């Protein structure tokens, strides 16, 4: 729960929230067996929004973003992503997954493929892009996350921070319209957290729609346009970052903030 | 109070290790004489190895190569201990080919040379990929070379696969994916069962291109072991993969069928299955059908190997972190793509030692066919010992058979180690 300072000023010129809805979640509920993990979630995300979801562990924040690309199935309510409703229709699921990028806590790179192959696999097989073109795109994004020289190594030869940046590049190669981040820096050393956050900020500066589950409150303050606080499977409070941090309303939010920022 | 303040003023340069821990001397010290107990064990086991070799060598180096019977061997050796190698000289062709007609040995030899050509590009990815085309043809060529008969039959069988592909290709846009898959299965089966025979017969009468037929009962020796072993190994891997996936499926019927099959086959000794193949199967067949005995045995051994293979591969699947499935899903790969590109390459890599153990086991288990009367090397050894010239000979025959099996199994084991090293990518 560190607050890592970023050296540079964030460039806000392209961070515009449009009024087009990217994700619409209404009255969504989810159970694990009999355990009610997500309760009556209502959330509307516009294109260009950068949302940070915070909350204690077990509050359902990861489950929430995993429902958005159907890594978890919800049992009641609706989720509409980019105009496509998420149901058990496999075609819709594949369509949504190819347009929503996801970055995991443990990177989940494919250890048997090189960095470049990790990045070109989905474009070649899902988008049916010719290999050469896919490799050019991949190199473009690897340059963007500042590791083009590692392209022919295997994930096991890279540091955690580098692996996470590859994971981000891999998602970007599918040209997603929305990016989901599931605690992208929680498994990293402090020195590496910064390089990953830097990459995420760069992405935000280009106007990507982002939902981040993270404990990096510095990132939330500098980049997010909205912070959502969850507890016990429900959205307890949401606000724009300044108000959220300086003037929390709900008791649970105050307690949470005092605990992570208090010392 | 000691002074705890410390600041390094010069960094230490990298240095050579001490001479006693590096090089040949270092290796000997580290591996053979690292402690008193180790030194004693080294000397004792060295002595034991020398003792065994000194006892074995005189027996192996025995001037009996030209002996024509066990009695001649005894005369040559004149009371000394020694092997009687004459039996190998006289019978080695039989141990390799069984009762296959000797003027047709070239077909068997050609078949196994081609086997090597067909298998090489599968085993070594450095070879030109175009060789795989021959690997695809080989399964149809192999039985034709061994059994002979008209060339039209293997072509008709191969044509079944073409039909299946075409059915899938053209039916899929019209009746959908599932219908296409069912048709791709049904069309070739109907073709093989009812049409392939008459059509190839018809073509043979128009254009008779045929090799001399060799009956299955003339098959024997190592050629039989290798034929059964290679076919069972090659087919059990894909069936094993399908069964392992079936066992993990969310579809209840697919899962129950896979579990049922695997548990049934694993719960029954192979020898039982072989007896079913040799006797019971004929009872269930329509009267008059003559289903080749070697074919029946191959099917049973393959099913047996598949069940074991499925469990080995399931172990590999279980060892994969859930994140790999999730990452594949999140990138939009569908089930078959993620299995083929992400899951199977890793699961199979993890299971290589288990898979190769199963292969070796299957290959050695082919000797069990001697019990149902097929003349594999073990079966032949009994026949040879029944000859009054060689009555009473044991070690030389079994030693020779053992050596040949060892060469095959050891190569498989070395190959698996090579493969593991090659696929090592620095992680797990």
Give a structural overview.
The complex is a heterodimer of chains A (263) and B (428). Chain A has 263 residues and is of the alpha/beta class. Chain A has one domain: 3-Layer(aba) Sandwich (Rossmann fold), CATH 3.40.50. Chain A contains 9 helices and 10 strands. Chain A has helices at 61-68, 90-99, 115-125, 131-144, 160-172, 190-205, 217-223, 241-246, 251-261; strands at residues 21-32, 35-46, 50-54, 76-81, 84-85, 100-103, 178-182, 209-213, 226-231, 234-239. Chain A has a 6-stranded mixed beta sheet with strand order 6-7-8-3-9-10, with helices on both faces. In chain A, helix 4 crosses helix 5 (160-172) and helix 5 (160-172) runs parallel beside helix 6 (190-205). Chain A is globular. Chain B is mainly α. Chain B folds into 3 domains: 19-60; 86-100 and 218-422, Orthogonal Bundle (MetI-like fold); 149-211, no CATH class. In chain B, 72% of the residues lie in helices and 1% in strands. Chain B has a two-stranded antiparallel sheet with strand order 1-2. In chain B, helix 5 packs antiparallel against helix 6 (131-147). The mean pLDDT of chain B is 88. The chains are: A alpha/beta (263), B mainly alpha (428). The A-B interface holds A 69-71, 90, 94, 97-98, 100-102, 104, 106, 108-112, 121-122, 125-126, 154-157, 170-171, 174 and B 321, 323-324, 326-327, 329-334, 337, 341-342, 345-346, 349, 423, 425-428.
Can you give me a brief rundown of this structure?
With 263 residues, chain A is an alpha/beta fold. Chain A has helices at 61-68, 90-99, 115-125, 131-144, 160-172, 190-205, 217-223, 241-246, 251-261; strands spanning 21-32, 35-46, 50-54, 76-81, 84-85, 100-103, 178-182, 209-213, 226-231, 234-239.
Q: By CATH's scheme, which homologous superfamily of the largest domain in chain B applies?
A: MetI-like
> Biggest sheet of chain B: strands side by side, in what order?
1-2
Q: What would the principal axes of the Cα set say about the shape of chain B?
A: flat
Strand content of chain A: 15-25%
CATH class of the largest domain in chain B, please? Mainly Alpha
Determine the oligomeric state from the structure: heterodimer
| CATH architecture annotation name of chain A | 3-Layer(aba) Sandwich
Number of helices of chain B: 15
Separate helix tally of chain A? 9
Tell me the major beta sheet of chain A.
6 strands, mixed
Class per helix and strand makeup of chain A? alpha/beta
Record the strand order, biggest sheet of chain A: 6-7-8-3-9-10
Low-pLDDT segments, ≥5 res of chain B: none
Q: Structurally, how many domains make up the residues of chain A?
A: 1
Q: Distance N terminus to C terminus of chain A?
A: 11 Å
InterPro entries (chain A): AAA+_ATPase (IPR003593), ABC_ATPase_HisP-typ (IPR030679), ABC_transporter-like_ATP-bd (IPR003439), ABC_transporter-like_CS (IPR017871), MetN_ABC_transporter-like (IPR050086), P-loop_NTPase (IPR027417)
Organism (chain A): Aliiruegeria haliotis
Domain ABC transporter (chain A): 23-257
Family (chain A): Belongs to the ABC transporter superfamily.
């Amino acid at each position: 729960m560190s607050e890592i300072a970023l050296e540079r000023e964030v460039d806000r010129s392209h961070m515009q929230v449009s009024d087009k809805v990217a994700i619409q979640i209404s009255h969504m509920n989810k159970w694990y067996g009999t355990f009610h993990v997500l309760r009556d979630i209502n959330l509307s995300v516009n294109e260009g929004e950068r949302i940070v979801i915070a909350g204690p562990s077990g509050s359902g924040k990861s489950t929430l973003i995993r429902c958005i690309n159907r890594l978890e199935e919800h049992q009641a309510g609706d989720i509409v992503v980019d105009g496509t409703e998420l149901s058990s229709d496999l075609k819709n699921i594949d369509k949504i997954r190819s347009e929503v990028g996801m970055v995991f806590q443990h990177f989940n790179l494919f250890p048997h493929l090189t960095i470049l192959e990790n990045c070109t696999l989905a474009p070649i097989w899902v988008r049916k892009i010719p290999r050469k073109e896919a490799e050019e795109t991949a190199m473009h994004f690897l340059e963007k996350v500042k590791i083009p020289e590692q392209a022919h190594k295997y994930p096991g030869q890279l540091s955690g921070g580098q692996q996470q940046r590859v994971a981000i590049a891999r998602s970007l190669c599918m040209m997603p319209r929305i990016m989901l981040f599931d605690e992208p820096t929680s498994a990293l050393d402090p020195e590496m957290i910064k390089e990953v956050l830097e990459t995420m900020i760069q992405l935000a500066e280009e106007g990507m729609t982002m939902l981040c589950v993270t404990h990096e409150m510095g990132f939330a303050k500098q980049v997010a346009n909205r912070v959502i606080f969850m507890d016990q499977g429900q959205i307890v409070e949401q606000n724009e970052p300044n108000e959220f941090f300086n003037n929390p309303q709900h008791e649970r939010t105050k307690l949470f903030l005092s605990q992570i920022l208090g010392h | 109070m000691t002074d705890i303040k410390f600041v390094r003023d010069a960094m230490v340069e990298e240095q050579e290790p001490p001479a006693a821990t590096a090089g040949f001397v270092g290796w000997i010290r580290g591996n053979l004489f690292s402690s008193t107990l180790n030194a004693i064990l080294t000397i004792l086991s060295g002595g034991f190895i020398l003792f065994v070799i000194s006892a074995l060598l005189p027996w192996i180096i025995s001037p009996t190569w030209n002996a024509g019977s066990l009695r001649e061997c005894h005369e040559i050796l004149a009371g000394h201990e020694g092997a009687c190698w004459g039996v190998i000289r006289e019978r080695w062709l039989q141990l390799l080919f069984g009762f296959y007609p000797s003027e047709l040995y070239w077909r068997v030899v050609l078949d196994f040379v081609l086997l090597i050509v067909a298998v090489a590009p599968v085993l070594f990815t450095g070879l030109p990929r175009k060789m795989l085309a021959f690997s695809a043809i080989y399964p149809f060529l192999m039985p034709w070379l061994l059994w002979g008969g008209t060339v039209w039959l293997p072509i008709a069988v191969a044509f079944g696969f073409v039909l299946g592909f075409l059915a899938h290709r053209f039916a899929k846009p019209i009746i959908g994916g599932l219908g296409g898959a069912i048709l791709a299965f049904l069309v070739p089966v109907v073709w093989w069962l009812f049409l392939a025979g008459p059509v190839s017969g018809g073509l043979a009468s128009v254009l008779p291109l045929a090799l001399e037929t060799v009956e299955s009962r003339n098959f024997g020796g190592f050629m039989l072991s290798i034929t059964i072993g290679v076919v069972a190994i090659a087919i059990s891997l894909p069936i094993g993969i399908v069964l392992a996936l079936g066992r993990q499926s969310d579809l209840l019927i697919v899962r129950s069928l896979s579990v049922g099959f695997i548990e049934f086959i694993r719960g029954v000794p192979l020898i039982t299955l072989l007896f079913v193949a040799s006797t019971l199967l004929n009872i269930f067949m329509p009267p008059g059908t003559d289903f080749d005995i070697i074919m029946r045995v191959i099917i049973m051994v393959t099913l047996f190997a598949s069940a074991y293979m499925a469990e080995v591969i399931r172990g590999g699947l279980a060892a994969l972190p859930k994140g790999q499935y999730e990452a594949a899903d999140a990138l939009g790969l569908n089930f078959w793509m993620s299995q083929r590109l992400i899951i199977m390459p890793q699961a199979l890599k993890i299971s290589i030692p288990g898979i190769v153990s199963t292969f070796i086991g299957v290959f050695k288990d082919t000797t069990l066919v001697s019990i149902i009367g097929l003349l594999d090397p073990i079966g032949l050894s009994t026949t040879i010992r029944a000859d009054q010239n060689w009555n009473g000979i044991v070690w030389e025959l079994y030693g020779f058979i053992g050596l040949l099996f060892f060469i095959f199994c050891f190569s498989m084991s070395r190959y698996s180690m090579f493969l593991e090293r090659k696929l090592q990518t620095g992680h797990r």
